[in-house]
Structure formats: C-alpha cells, structure tokens
Amino acid sequence: MRKDMKIILSPHLVSYAVLFFFCLLSLQLQAGPKGAPKAPIVFEDPQVESDYLELAEELRCLVCQNQNLIDSNAELADDLRREVAKMLKQGKNKEQVTDFMVERYGDFVLYNPPVKPQTWLLWGGPFLLMFWGLFAMLKKIKAGKTESNGDSLELSEQEKEKLQAILKNK
C-alpha cells in the first residue's frame, strides 16, 4: 500500500461494524451447551442395558416427533431416557415401562402404535389419501379425454371464411 493513501471511514460504516461485531459475539455466547453436562447412564446388568436400548429405539421423542429417544438431542428425550433407565433399574420389565409411557403420553409415544379404533385414522389415513389422489387423477384424465373427443379438429365454415380473408390480405 502506498504511503500517501489514506483510509477514510465513515461514521456509519464504523457503527455498522460495531453492531455486526456485537451480534456475532452474542451468537457465539449462545452457541455453547446449556447447563452442565449430564452424567451418562450406566447399567450393571447387560440384560437391563439391552432392554433400555430396545425401548429407547421403540419410543418416539415427543418434541422431535420423527426421532426415537436414542437419536434425539431434546431435553425431554433426555428426561425420558433417564426415566426409562430408572424404571428398568427398579426391576420393571419392558412391557411395564411401555404401558407407563403410553398411559402418560398416549399411543403417539410409540413408533408402531397398536391398531385399535383410536388409531384407525393413523394407520388408514395414508391409504385413504393415496386412493383419493388416484381417484382424482383418474377422474381428471377421463374428463380430459371426453373434452378432447368433443372438440372438432375441423374448422367451421365461418372460421374457414375468416382464414381465407386473412390470407388474402397478406
């Protein structure tokens, strides 16, 4: 850079740079983990650990809704994992833990809810939507065929006269 060149900073540019710096600083402060890290869940019995892992894969995170308890990082999922581990360590079996979770949170907590009158729409809804879509598509196709069959590709006498008049004028 040459010695005779001066850098001119406008007051607006400086204020925007300071504002940008403080925005980045506040984002950096919020980016870290919230609270102290929680201790890992440790099992003494391998069978209890196996049951825990199976249940954590079968139960849905109520916050994420599309992840099981193992995959979710939500605080509620962490609480549910700890609750499942606590119940299993107390000697409850998988069915008792599942029944407790269903009683507390409903069938939605299960990835594969049972087929019963309350869940018929859940199980049948995708098929109903698929059949409704196929029906609407077939109806649209059929309407398009009848519409195209009704239209004549031949010109009427009046249209032929108009066409001849346009061609003569050119």
Question: What topology emerges from the helices and strands here?
Answer:
Layout: H1 11-30, H2 46-58, H3 75-89, H4 94-105, H5 120-150, H6 157-169
Helix content: 55-70%
Largest sheet features:
none
Please give the CATH architecture of one domain. Orthogonal Bundle
Beta-strand proportion: under 5%
The count of helical stretches stands at 6
Given as residue ranges, the uncertain stretches (5+ residues, pLDDT < 50) are none
Radius of gyration: 34 Å
Give the helix/strand class: mainly alpha
Nearest-integer average pLDDT: 82
Query: How many strand segments?
Result: 0
- CATH names the topology of one domain as Helicase, Ruva Protein, domain 3
Summarize this structure briefly.
By secondary structure, the protein is mostly helical. Helix content is 61%, strand content 0%.
Structure description:
The chain is mostly helical. It has a domain at 46-113: Orthogonal Bundle (Helicase, Ruva Protein, domain 3), CATH 1.10.8.640. It has six helices and no strands. It has helices spanning 11-30, 46-58, 75-89, 94-105, 120-150, 157-169. Helix 2 runs antiparallel to helix 3 (75-89).
Task: Please tag this protein with its features.
single chain; 170 residues; Helicase, Ruva Protein, domain 3; 6 helices
